[in-house]
Design brief:
The protein has about 400 residues and is mainly alpha-helical. The chain contains 22 helices and no strands.
Length: about 400
């Protein structure tokens, strides 16, 4: 028996050694592109940012002038909270890049890291330079006959201004994009979303979504956005009809291209339509593809809650909240993630935490009508009825009628 055990142990050691040797050979044979792809995959998954950084370091070892690898390294460091090192990585990326559009994107990331370090003056200076780059791009295309690229340049500036929470100026940029090219659905959708969600100018938002749908009646983004605005303004029957159209649009896209991963979007649409079992199935499919997807997990929690499966819902919510600070960090200037977090805390009965999240969202965007309403619900649950009524009144003043 002892002899058999020793033979088995030796075989296990030999097998393990072979596995290690094979792994080393594979690693040695990996190219610059292989390591970069590995880094991007790791960066896309929550909690594997240290591994992602090491993969990008391998790229840099092979080619120290690979700007994309330095960018990936900066993103990995930022998500681990190593903002000083992230700034240095982004600076190296900027040294290696000359493309204006790419440069502006890297500078935005650098500005966010500086804000996280509370170096607000430096961040403001970087943001100013980013807008100057956008203006330079617009000027370059204004002096040419290429109207398509001029329109894209205005869209580019609008997106930059959104990141800096300068919503009114962003609308002006999107206006110019639609004037140069009134047939581009993306421009109208960008304008509509900003008007509706960020500025509570609901009628203008609906007009912009309708313009997008005149161009492409089956555009899923425009249909989903229009339904959301109709919901916010209390036009629930119309919203349901548009949600149905949006669902058909997404199903057609998935039928034509099975590789399209829109499980979360489909789940959200089915949830809005009250088809909870189907929405749960869609969210489960999304979680299978990405077990760390916060949006799929939180959507799953909402579906389970609607089905009365409260304990399962609580688990899904808590799983969705893991590493949520990373989601907030990557969208530093956006209220959306804070609203989601507030909604989850409210569903979990953590009303004080919900209030903190809603207040963070309102600090970023005081005109976010729905958040005032949700804040009122949290205050009501805490027995603070007078404050709750003030919050409900504010929501109504801003046009919320959900």
């Amino acid at each position: 028996m002892t002899k058999i055990f020793k033979i088995g142990t030796r075989l296990s050691i030999v097998f393990l050694t072979l596995v290690i040797l094979c792994s080393c050979v594979v690693a040695q044979n990996m190219t610059e592109d292989d390591w970069y792809r590995k880094g991007r995959e790791l960066l896309a998954g929550m909690g594997r940012y240290d591994e992602a950084e090491k993969a990008f370091d391998k790229v840099i070892e092979l080619n120290s002038s690979n700007a994309l690898a330095w960018d990936g390294k900066g993103a990995s460091l930022s998500r681990m909270g190593k903002y000083e090192e992230a700034v240095k990585a982004y600076d190296r990326t900027l040294e290696l890049m000359s493309d204006d559009v790419f440069t502006a994107g890297i500078m935005q990331k650098k500005a966010k890291s500086l804000e996280n370090l509370r170096r607000m003056d430096e961040a403001a200076e970087v943001n100013k330079e980013i807008v100057e780059i956008a203006d330079k791009v617009i000027n370059d295309w204004t002096n040419s006959s290429d109207l398509a690229n001029l329109a894209n340049a205005w869209q580019f500036k609008g997106d930059i201004l959104i990141e800096q929470r300068r919503y009114e100026e962003a609308i002006l940029a999107y206006d110019n994009a639609t004037k140069v090219d009134p047939t581009n659905v993306l421009f109208w959708n960008s304008k509509a979303y900003t008007l509706g969600i960020e500025l509570c100018r609901f009628n203008e938002s609906l007009y912009a979504y309708n313009r997008a749908l005149e161009i492409n009646p089956s555009d899923g983004v425009a249909l989903k956005g229009k339904a959301k605005i109709l919901d916010l303004t209390g036009q629930h029957d119309e919203a349901i009809e548009v949600y149905e159209e949006a669902l058909k649009s997404y199903d057609q896209i998935m039928a034509k291209n099975p590789k399209v991963k829109s499980g979360v979007t489909r789940g959200n649409l089915l949830l809005a339509l009250g088809r909870y079992n189907e929405s749960l199935k869609a969210y489960n499919s999304a979680v299978e593809m990405n077990p760390e997807s916060y949006s799929a997990l939180i959507g799953k929690g909402k579906a389970l809650e609607a089905l009365g499966r409260h304990e399962e819902a609580i688990k899904a919510y808590n799983d969705g909240l893991k590493d949520f600070d990373i989601v907030e960090e990557t969208r530093l200037g956006r209220a959306g993630p804070r609203v989601i977090k507030g909604d989850v805390f409210r569903a979990l009965g953590r009303y004080e935490d919900a209030l903190l999240a809603y207040d963070e969202a309102l600090e970023l965007n005081p005109r976010y009508a729905g958040v005032w309403y949700y804040k009122g619900l949290a205050l009501n649950a805490l027995g603070r009825s007078s404050e709750a009524n003030d919050a409900f009144d504010k929501a109504k003043t801003l046009g919320y009628n959900g």
